[in-house]
Design a protein that fits this description.
450 residues; alpha+beta; 7-stranded antiparallel sheet; 4-stranded mixed sheet; 27% helix; disordered C terminus
Length: 450
């Protein structure tokens, strides 16, 4: 939890065993500070802004109910995930290997894994399971469990390595999005961030990207001061949160053990996802783009290029292509310079790449790819313009500017059903809802340059 006063953050360090015990309120039931306990000594901080980064254990939803703001809608999926991690020392002939692998579970397989170089010349190995299938916390059983992965490469490497740490297991029963953005009333003085808002499936490596994007949204909102900051922040971070949710929703609902509402078009999403995976086995560009979309390093629209759509459609078997009509895609490109206020509050919510991974192809030999390091940099006008694009499917109208309404309730309803010609390939490939007034705000194209 961070308290912000003026331009100087007041961060309570774990070294002094300080913990925040409760929020303070003023006469308007807004947050005016926090109470802190350090050992037997209690104190109070009265900053201008409190940022709640307390993760899944956040007490903010309960506090909002207790102080008359009502319940926070909780959008969730029962993913039933568990994972076990441990460190290994590689054999001498692989000591300088920079190879990293993220192997996802494609149904009916329920096991996934991540193997990557770590500090001190070690390997960090993580095994993911679903529906109670959790990797053991003892070395021999851990390595044996990896035999059940979709390809033997990780098991082969771990069999040559020496375990050098204890193994730890964690359970993630649900992925959730706390929809503070849909509340009719929200207090001044507090902003939730990170897993205190969005806690999705850790398998997809999105946590840091989501947190960084939310931090950028907060920075953007604060350029106009602290007054009415929360609606600006929630609006600016909604698009990235939606992409992260849609990646989890599309992939996890393929597994029968996942509990949650299935969108009407989910089967079409799976078909197009299968086509993209098939292409990625032999097409390095599609492979790179699909990895970047999964990790929120690029928008899903990068996979809606006409040539990729055509190749993906061709990759489907005749049975899967049955009923598919390749849609004409109309692209409304809104330039950064001419954005209305509603879009100007939305910075390009993409974080630097903190993960280096490759998806091994079943039809390729597993040659190590160099680890990719992306440095944080200032976003140029060209990049900002690229990231402010809004792809609209054929026959759909761009959503209108939100205006000055405090909050805009979003709709998860889709009338596209299983007809990709109406929904647009953007949704089918990436599992992202087509542009709706509630989940992607853009200006009227008539008022902007193209």
């Amino acid at each position: 939890m961070t308290a912000h006063s003026g331009l100087s953050p007041l961060v309570q360090h774990a070294a002094v065993a300080a913990r925040i015990t409760q929020f303070c309120i003023d006469g308007n039931s807004d947050v005016s500070g926090v109470k802190i306990q350090t050992g037997d000594i209690g104190s109070e901080i009265a900053p201008d802004l409190v940022v709640d980064c307390s993760g899944r254990a956040t007490t903010l939803p309960r506090w909002l109910v207790d102080h008359g703001y009502g319940d926070v809608e909780r959008q969730e999926l029962g993913i039933g995930m568990s994972y076990t991690s441990g460190l290994f020392r590689p054999p001498p002939d692989l000591a300088d290997d920079t190879w990293a692998c993220l192997m996802l579970a494609i149904p009916p397989n329920t096991r996934a894994a991540y193997l990557t170089p770590d500090d001190g010349g070690l390997w960090l190995a993580t095994m993911y399971g679903r529906g109670g299938d959790m990797a053991p916390r003892e070395a021999e059983g851990f390595v044996e469990w990896s035999k059940g992965l979709s390809h033997p490469i990780i098991h082969e490497k771990l069999s040559q390595a020496e375990p050098v740490s204890d193994f730890r297991s964690y359970k993630i029963p649900k992925g959730f999005w706390l929809r503070y953005d849909l509340m009719e009333r929200y207090p001044r003085g507090i902003i939730p961030m990170g897993e205190a808002v969005t806690s999705f499936n850790p398998m997809y490596g999105q946590g840091i990207s989501l947190s960084a994007g939310q931090a950028r949204a907060l920075r953007s909102g604060m350029t106009d001061g602290l007054d009415r900051l929360s609606p600006r922040y929630f609006e600016a971070s909604e698009a990235l949160n939606q992409v992260g949710w849609s990646v989890m929703e599309t992939r996890d609902l393929e597994h029968p053990s996942t509990v949650g509402e299935r969108p009407a078009d989910i089967e079409n999403r799976w078909k197009m996802g299968a086509a993209i995976r098939k292409l990625a086995e032999t097409d390095s560009e599609v492979h790179r783009l699909s990895v970047n979309v999964t990790h929120l390093l690029e928008p899903p629209s990068v996979l809606s290029r006409e040539d990729i759509v055509e190749r993906a459609h061709s990759a489907l078997s005749p049975a899967l292509r049955c009923g598919f009509i390749k849609p004409a895609i109309r692209c409304a490109c809104e330039t950064w310079a001419s954005q209305t206020h509603a879009m100007r509050t939305k910075l390009p919510l993409i974080s630097p790449a903190l993960m280096s991974a490759c998806f091994p192809s079943l039809n390729e030999n597993y040659q190590a790819q160099p680890q990719r390091k992306v440095k944080c940099h200032s976003w140029t006008r060209e990049v900002q313009s690229r990231w402010s694009r809004c792809y609209v499917s054929a026959g759909a109208s761009p959503a209108r500017t939100v205006g000055n309404s405090r909050f805009k309730k979003s709709s998860n309803t889709s009338n596209a059903g299983n007809n990709p010609s109406r929904e647009g390939i953007r949704r089918l490939i990436c599992g992202v809802p087509a542009v709706q007034p509630g989940n992607m705000r853009t200006s009227d194209p008539a008022s902007t340059s193209r």
